[in-house]
Amino acid sequence: MTGPTQQPGGPPPERVRVTGPPRRRPPVGRTSDIDAGTRLGDVYMRSLLREQLRLALGVLGVMAVTIGLLPLAFHLAPGLSDVRLLGVPLGWLLLGVAVYPALVALGWVYVRRAERNERDFADLVSETES
User: Is residue 94 within 8 Å of 83, Cβ to Cβ?
Assistant: First the structure.
């Protein structure tokens, strides 16, 4: 395959951009309402944001109740501080080791449900576009 080559001392060859077909369809139906910022589009976006906020607050609440109250439990029940497992204080094990798998699990649940909310929203928006 031969192409334009640069002659010594001459200008460099012109660059050519090669592109494929557009990946997305132009917005129609409800997505155009959202893109254009119409009142209907605002209602759809507010409903998605409200659902995502509800999910975030729920996960934050679970985290506050389970992990956030551990220090309070040790403060209110001082006898727990004396409990040792494998020579390590229970408080250290719970707050230094057990918390991380719990945070990973909460993060996993949050991401899965947030993706489900977005998928449901996309399905709702695309229902009337067809």
Answer: no
Report d(CA 42, CA 72) in Å as an integer: 42
The residue segments making up the domain with residue 64 are 30-127
Is 91 among the domain residues?
yes
pLDDT band at 59 (very low <50, low <70, confident <90, very high): very high
Task: Note the pLDDT tens digit of each residue in 12-45.
Answer: 888 887 776 666 554 445 566 566 667 777 788 8
Supply the pLDDT for residue 105.
94
Radius of gyration over alpha carbons of the chain, in Å? 28
Residue at 19 is within a domain? no
Pairing of strands 84-85, 88-89: antiparallel
Residue 13, domain member (yes or no):
no
